[in-house]
Specification:
Layout lengths: L1 H16 L5 H12 L4 H27 L5 H19 L2 H21 L5
Helix pairs in contact: 1-2, 1-3, 2-3, 2-5, 3-4, 3-5
Length: 117
C-alpha cells in the first residue's frame, strides 16, 4: 500500500516539479518515498512515478493533438506530444538525469521513514 501511495504522490508531484533543476525532482521523489517507509520501495516510487507521469502527459497531449474520430490519430498525437514534452524538458539525457535524481530522492525518503525492528 505504501508503494502505491508513494507512486501516486511522486506521479502527481513530478510533472509539477521537474522543471525546477535538480531540487524539484529530488523533492518529488523524497516526498513520494516517505510514504513507502522502505528504502527499496522508495527507490521504485522515485523511478517509476515520473515515468507514469510523463506517459500521462504524453497521452493528454495526444488527446489534444490527435484525431477525435480514431484511436490511430490519438496514438499519433501521443507520440508527437511525448516528443514535445521531451523537447520542453531539454533533452532525453536531461530527462533521464531528472528521473535518476527523483529515484535518489525516493530512496532517501524511504530510508528516513523506514520502520526498523
Amino acid at each position: 500500500m505504501g508503494l502505491l501511495t508513494g507512486l501516486v504522490v511522486t506521479f502527481l508531484l513530478y510533472p509539477l516539479l521537474h522543471f525546477v533543476p535538480i531540487i524539484g525532482p529530488f523533492i518529488a521523489g523524497f516526498i513520494g518515498g516517505m510514504f513507502t517507509h522502505d528504502i527499496g520501495k522508495g527507490f521504485l516510487a522515485g523511478l517509476l512515478g515520473p515515468m507514469f507521469g510523463l506517459i500521462l502527459l504524453a497521452i493528454l497531449f495526444g488527446a489534444l493533438l490527435g484525431s477525435r474520430e480514431g484511436m490511430v490519430g490519438t496514438l499519433a498525437g501521443a507520440v508527437v506530444g511525448g516528443a514535445v514534452g521531451v523537447v520542453a524538458a531539454g533533452t532525453i539525457g536531461l530527462l533521464a538525469f531528472a528521473i535518476l535524481i527523483t529515484a535518489i530522492g525516493g530512496t532517501i525518503g524511504g530510508l528516513v521513514t523506514e520502520h526498523r525492528d
